[in-house]
Design brief:
The complex is a heterotetramer, with two copies of chain A (585 residues) and two copies of chain B (267 residues). With 585 residues, chain A is an alpha/beta fold. Chain A folds into four domains: 182 residues, 3-Layer(aba) Sandwich (Pyruvate-ferredoxin Oxidoreductase, domain 3); 175 residues, Thiamin diphosphate (ThDP)-binding fold, Pyr/PP domains (Rossmann fold, 3-Layer(aba) Sandwich); 73 residues, no CATH class; 114 residues, 3-Layer(aba) Sandwich (Rossmann fold). Chain A has 20 helices and 21 strands. In chain A, helix 5 runs antiparallel to helix 6. Chain A is globular. Chain A starts with a strand and ends with a helix. Chain B has 267 residues and is α/β, with parallel strands linked by helices. Chain B has a single domain, classed as Thiamin diphosphate (ThDP)-binding fold, Pyr/PP domains (Rossmann fold), CATH 3.40.50.970. An eight-stranded mixed beta sheet of chain B has the order 2-1-3-4-6-5-8-7, sandwiched between helices. In chain B, strand 7, helix 8 and strand 8 form a beta-alpha-beta unit. In chain B, helix 1 crosses helix 6, helix 4 crosses helix 5 and helix 5 packs antiparallel against helix 8. Classes of the chains: A alpha/beta (585), B alpha/beta (267). Chains A and C meet through helix 10, helix 11, helix 15, helix 18 and helix 19 of A and helix 10, helix 11, helix 12, helix 16 and helix 19 of C. Strand 15 of chain C pairs parallel with strand 2 of chain D, so a sheet runs across the interface. The structure holds thiamine diphosphate (2 copies), iron/sulfur cluster (SF4) (2 copies) and magnesium ion (MG) (2 copies). One thiamine diphosphate sits at the interface of chains D and A.
Chain lengths: 585, 267, 585, 267
């Protein structure tokens, strides 16, 4: 059950990110599970970059705080990643001879460490074959150590380089082989992680891709969006596929256009979405209110990054919670869902796609840069039972002259006619309206429609999809989290159990309407509840408190909140530390 | 086959007596009758403004969206549902002020839509502020007591520079002529822009004079340079189809085989 | 101490709104205080309209639920105002002969009522003089009854009609006189309200105008905005005056431009603002985050209307609370202030103007259609000690090469250089940055700047301006409200006291950061706390709860929340009813 | 008097080696030297994009705002602080896609600003998506695998139709010529638009060919119709000041006596 984390740093052109990707793929081919994170400086090209790969015998959905092995192709700018690649005394460091001067602050520390620094001539190996790619030599070397330098490594290289032609590929193979051979002379003083029996044909995917998959599989056939980091690659993945399903993706002139286009398509009965990040989401606020008021299905995926304003575009944070839950004008109830892992991007987005159609309203899905852009080896995902069209089709057809688009039904859901359907003609409206869709400023109509729009979401709070519970029988401590912290909390749970502290972990998928009963149930027998989230203001924690009555709150165990912003990823260790620091834990 | 009147919904317009928008409504119903439009296949999409209230007065489907966003709403609908006849409409404020960017990009993108702007050179709905087409020295708004002091927008010249393939100007005083223009606009493949001089009798009573000022022009051309020349020397009161140069509407069809969405994830 | 409420209805062209305005002005001239509310249908012209005037011997800042006198020039569409003009058995009705058929639903009720319906020939009176203005005849009649048909009425007519020329004015005078004379033959079977000794030279103003006054007096010298109901008239008031102060107002192409223009001016050191309503505020969300992150002073006035989406543009509601407090992406602390009355529009906006400059951030002021567009007779407002430039000037000047724009000071406020100042050159940025304003993605810089931006607002929670307390010694019930409900709650307080139930009323002016200590202090000795607000989701009530720790909450009296949406105005009566319905009250 | 280099801030640009934006930076410093610009009196205002990072590299005041809003930010600043030399700048995505509406209205409003668009026909910062000026069939973005299939924007023609009084095009391969153009743009009273062809070597390596394609033109005219004619037959690679027709910049001065703000409230 040994996992291991390998970090790679270099500056632009040294190809550490390519190294990370090929390494993960090769390892996966040899039965490893794993996860890869890439991190860049602000430069588009030529700047610093790093990759972190974690490998082990079971699916890995998070990173831990430890770096076991650091591979250095270039030391310059290493300090920029100091926060993200925390070295410890036991980190083994392997550097290329050409890596340049070690960073000042590190130099003395490095000499005094338990594990030394191993200097090897990867660039020389590459050069000897006429290649400038020391990263490939290093790849071969590490792959050999992992035992995946045969077919798995070859096909990882092929996959990455085949577009550059047979010669490039052949050269890479031979440079990699040279690297692999080096292992015999210069063994790595560290036991490789355990390889497992990976699934029949494991998948390699990013959360953004899986979000795209969830959307398309659940029936999204129209996408309009404006590029923004870190949402663009979800869009790019869909762009290459949606037309084969008979759908269309439009690159809009801005986010205002994108979201309104999606609303237009949704009105036409075609399940539609947009994807964006914080600044774009802010721009969509007005139109999201239109989807709510006009009761038009709309799916919005927000891949969160550091805020406020332009903030830290390439790093992860959970700080758009407030905007997502509260950021519309007027009383505008809508649904907010958070993806709980890379794989859950698939599930959450597919569910959300169905919900938008079924409830005829705005459904927002929160993902983040970590989920969206990390790449994971995972067992093939099951097909899901979520379908936007099906749920739409189950609505009663309009009944001719008596058709009331905004009929005040018990469920709050009214029959929605689609253009082309004779007898259903109506004008959707963001103005307050009567049941028959005629604009109205009357108190009675306003109150009726407000109540109806709220009511149609309430039953959702009881849906079984509300969240994930990982319960341990003796647990008296609950770790409550949402979104991408869930896998981190799960790992903390496992480690705590190893230390004899059983905790239960709940990851909330449905943020609004809040599944209060389920949450109260999960809290009721606990001595302590620890809320963790990745933002500065403890946004979810405040929201949770806002939803509790005085009586409910009085009946609860003590709530402790541990919240801090990005860009540093959350680690299981810091959650464990919080658990261990709880008053009576 | 329906008569023009049968395209009305029965909802009573909120417009002031004498408002030009009534005639635009009538012109649309006339064009629909001529087109033998089935009501359920047409969708009128608008933003916010007096003019943007129009969809509710028709018997078709409609979407009264938010201010300035009629065109993206219509674009999304038409791209997703190419079987529908989608007509976007609104006012000069909606279309050229807050909606200016979508106007430019819709002209360029060339989706098969008709866009009707009821231009009264003022914000009627919000009680008479200057719009982008308001004359430079119009001093009747308290918000701009010295007048906008900015040259009015030239919607047709801009549409041309932005790449629209059909550009026309009508007048609410001539609903029959306008109906014919709308007929042609609907038939035109790709984006068709129709500016309608539609007086706001309440905030710009001087606009009743327009009926003396408009003059029909038969300048229809498919040559952009000619059209540009004409539109740059235009007095703003010429009526007619100025430019008509059809090209294949967007989105273009692509051959694409069925894909296994999950394929690429496998090692 | 008798107040009296007079409602007037008609359809377009009958001039009820003009009637209301002239009546209020004439009454003010005779020593009355009063308040006027206008209400329209969706039509721009020719539709239904109504005006309600309340008069009495003391300043009146709210309406009550009772209509004492209904003046009808035209019955058509009366039903549209049924919610807003609730008739009771004791309402006296006076109608013009030409008012047309009484509404079906009302007809039988009207006949069976205590007070009859008095039918008079105002149109005839007017026609006899060759005038079509029955409203002026009615004006003279009512003015005579109020005792203000002499000079006060004349100058009210002059004020309204002088632009139309001497002939029109003269005719109006004589029609009014004829109306006044009618009173002798047809007295009004109702005692007029008491007139008081109004202030030396009382003011007649709307809340929007007073907001404009507060802004300009506190130093706003740049306004950029896009027209929207019900904010436009605040802008129009300023447009006519700002240039005489050396400032400028720009009508922008949209709200995105407006708010960014104001940020540009604020960066230049010129106190700047924009004003809008819900849909426009939603569009400003992204740029408001820029003001927060770049620490640029920005004042945004939101005159709230019914939501969501286009909603009910001409009616009042308090439903933009969530958007105002939470609606930015990322962790974006900012200030939110609510005006507590028409007069307080002056105070709150002036204070907010200073705060924006002093704290170098976004300050949002919430007003609403009721405050903004009602017109009140009030004593002249004092000059206020709030000045944007002064507080800016008190910052230390930049210190040459060592100048750090975003210096992490104790107060959280950093010295702000202004373009033109040598040695202060820096680039303001919405990207996260170091103290020296260089973009940075480092955790350390992010945490430092997030904390600093939060800290610089915290001390505000203790400011004396946080709210208004109207305490009664024996009160064991607290009515807690914000914004325009404060005057209504004050009237409820007064009436409850008359009935022997003393309550204390707190109106919260500072919504964010929430003045929690002051609020807890005001709640501590109470048996019951009633929160009232005008929206569907009880937005403030939830927010308050979100800010309380478990311990604080446990120590509090029971919180009951009474929240309902517009468009109906809140009345003292309904608040009283809630108080009387409280569990142990 | 400062030398060109002395206008740099010392912050190291994040740009890729070979990016055209370096030359634009140099051209600005050269123009500043020629203008004897005091650094504290100039403000560079930008949106978001590789190009929009430029202000931080200069020794002047700067504002790196949000995506697409450089022009309103600059407009507010200039109207409030007419004493400053305000230069707005950014990329083709920032200026013509999300910022298109502000571009139109800035041309029309004619505030005394310079607006420099570093046009590389691509979104550099977000890794190579199509922008409004991207060629119709450019297929290098995964977001538009068949290419945008939409005709590219004509920034100069649009600026003219929208009412700009100074319209020029430069090339990053000619920083001296560009510096002269910028000098003239700053001197021009009112809004001055300068499109700069500035290659993105990373996502459009083909743009290094631009240096062979550009050709200087001396078409400077103050006649809009002539300019329109030229710009409608332009191949997109002409270099020069195409149109220069100064008019009084906005806001116009008004006589206004001091007012007692409180006056109107008294009965
Ligand atoms: C986001 C937003 N901003 C402002 C408004 C206010 N508003 C409503 S209609 C309108 C202008 C309408 O003018 P135009 O489009 O010319 O139509 P007209 O009334 O003249 O027919 C404005 C500014 C709004 N509803 N939404
Ligand atoms: C509201 C918003 N939407 C999208 C983005 C993402 N974004 C950043 S820069 C950019 C495009 C930049 O292209 P361009 O202006 O041409 O500049 P270049 O990088 O090519 O110099 C985009 C889409 C953003 N930052 N904010
Ligand atoms: S205000 Fe003007 S545009 Fe609006 S309905 Fe009246 S006349 Fe027509
Ligand atoms: S990505 Fe393109 S535009 Fe951006 S810095 Fe690199 S070369 Fe320049
Ligand atoms: Mg108009
Ligand atoms: Mg670009």
């Amino acid at each position: 059950m040994r996992n291991l984390t390998i970090a790679m740093t270099g500056s632009g052109g040294t190809g550490v990110v390519a190294l990370g990707e090929m390494l993960l793929r090769a390892a996966a081919g040899a039965g490893y599970y794993g996860i890869l994170r890439k991190t860049f400086g602000p430069q588009i090209r030529g700047g610093e970059s790093a990759a972190v790969v974690r490998l082990g015998p079971r699916p890995l959905a998070s990173f831990c705080g430890e770096i076991d092995l650091l591979l250095v192709l270039d030391w310059s700018h290493f300090q920029r990643f100091a926060d993200e690649i925390p070295l410890s005394a036991s980190t083994l460091i392997i550097e290329d001879v050409a890596a340049g001067a070690r960073p000042q602050q590190l130099a003395s520390e490095l000499l005094a460490r338990e594990q030394g620094v191993q200097v090897l001539d990867f660039s020389g190996l590459a050069q000897a074959q006429g290649s400038a790619h020391s990263n490939i030599a290093l790849l071969g070397y590490v792959a050999a150590w992992l035992g995946c330098d045969g077919e798995p490594l070859q096909s990882a290289i092929d996959h990455r380089l085949h577009k550059q032609g047979a010669e490039v590929v052949a050269l890479a193979h031979s440079v990699a082989r040279a690297g692999a051979e080096l292992l015999q002379q210069a063994p790595i003083n560290l036991q490789p992680p355990d390889a497992g029996a990976a699934a029949e044909s494991p998948w390699l995917a990013t959360g953004n891709q899986l979000a795209g998959l969830g959307a398309l599989e659940a029936g999204i056939r129209f996408v309009a969006a404006y590029p923004i980091t870190p949402a663009s690659d979800a869009l790019e993945w869909m762009a290459g596929r949606i037309e084969s399903l008979g759908g269309r993706l439009v690159q809009a002139e801005d986010e205002l256009a994108a979201v309104n286009m999606a609303i237009g398509a949704g009105f036409g009965g075609v399940p539609a979405m947009t994807a964006t990040s914080g600044p774009g989401l802010a721009l969509m606020s007005e139109a999201m209110g239109l989807a709510v008021a006009s009761e038009t299905p709309l799916l919005v995926l927000d891949v969160m990054r550091g805020g406020p304003s332009t903030g830290i575009p390439t790093k992860s944070e959970q700080s758009d919670f407030n905007l997502a839950v509260y950021g519309l004008h007027g009383d505008a109830p809508h649904v907010v869902v958070a993806a709980l892992s890379l794989a859950d991007c698939h599930y959450s987005v597919a569910w959300a796609t169905q919900l938008a159609s079924e409830r005829q309203t705005l459904v927002l899905v929160l993902s983040d840069q970590f989920l969206g852009q990390s790449m994971q080896v995972l067992p093939p995902l099951p097909s899901l039972p979520f379908h936007a069209e099906l749920s739409r089709a189950s609505l009663p057809p309009p009944a001719g002259a008596d058709y009331f688009r905004y009929l005040d039904t018990d469920s709050g859901i009214s029959p929605m006619a689609l253009p082309g359907q004779p007898g259903g003609e109506y004008t959707a409206d963001g103005l307050e309206h009567s049941q028959s869709a005629v604009p109205s400023a009357r108190a009675q109509d306003h109150e009726q429609q407000l109540a109806k729009r709220q009511r149609k979401l309430q039953s959702l709070a009881a849906s079984t999809q509300w969240g994930e519970v990982s319960a341990l029988p003796q647990a008296r401590i609950l770790i409550l989290c949402w979104g991408s912290l869930f896998p981190v909390a799960l790992e903390a749970q496992q480690r705590l159990q190893e230390r004899g502290t059983p905790v239960t972990v709940v990851g909330v998928r449905l943020l609004a309407p809040l599944p209060l009963e389920s949450l109260l149930r999960s809290m009721q027998d606990m001595a302590q509840v620890l809320l963790v989230e990745q933002n500065h203001q403890a946004q979810f924690a405040h929201y949770l408190q806002s939803q509790l009555t005085q009586a409910q709150r009085a009946g609860l165990p003590e709530l402790t909140c541990y919240s801090r912003p990005g860009p540093r990823l959350f680690t299981p260790q810091e959650i464990m530390q919080q658990v261990e620091g709880l008053p009576r834990a | 086959m329906l008569k023009a009147k049968q395209y009305k919904s029965g909802v009573k317009p909120i417009w002031c007596p004498g408002c030009g928008h009534y005639s635009v409504l009538n012109a649309i119903t006339k064009a629909f009758a001529a087109l033998e439009q089935s009501p359920e296949q047409a969708v009128l999409v608008s933003g916010i403004g007096c003019s943007s209230r129009l969809p509710a007065y028709l018997n078709s489907y409609g979407f009264h969206g938010v201010h300035g966003r009629a065109l993206p709403l219509a674009t999304g609908l038409k791209v997703a549902r190419p079987d529908l006849n989608v007509i976007a409409l609104g006012g000069d404020g909606d279309g050229f002020s807050i909606g200016g960017n979508h106007f430019l990009h819709a002209c360029r993108r060339n989706v098969d839509l008709v866009y009707v702007v009821m231009d009264n050179e003022v914000y009627g709905m919000t009680k008479g502020q200057a719009s982008p087409t308001t004359p430079e020295h119009w001093q009747h708004s308290k918000l701009t007591p010295h007048g906008p002091e900015v040259r009015p927008f030239q919607p047709c010249a801009l549409a041309l520079a932005a790449g629209a393939g059909f550009i026309a100007r009508g007048h609410s005083g001539d609903p029959n002529g306008l109906a014919q223009m709308l007929f042609a606009a609907v038939k035109h493949p790709g984006f068709a822009f129709v500016q309608v001089l539609s007086q706001c009798v309440t905030f710009c009573p001087e606009q009743v004079q327009w009926k003396e000022q408009v003059h029909a022009e038969s300048v229809g051309t498919d040559n952009p340079a000619e059209a540009a020349h004409f539109l740059h020397s235009d007095d703003g009161f010429a009526k007619g189809i100025f430019y008509c140069n059809p090209r294949t509407p967007w989105p273009l069809p692509h051959d694409s085989q069925a894909t296994d969405l999950r394929e690429g994830f496998r090692l």
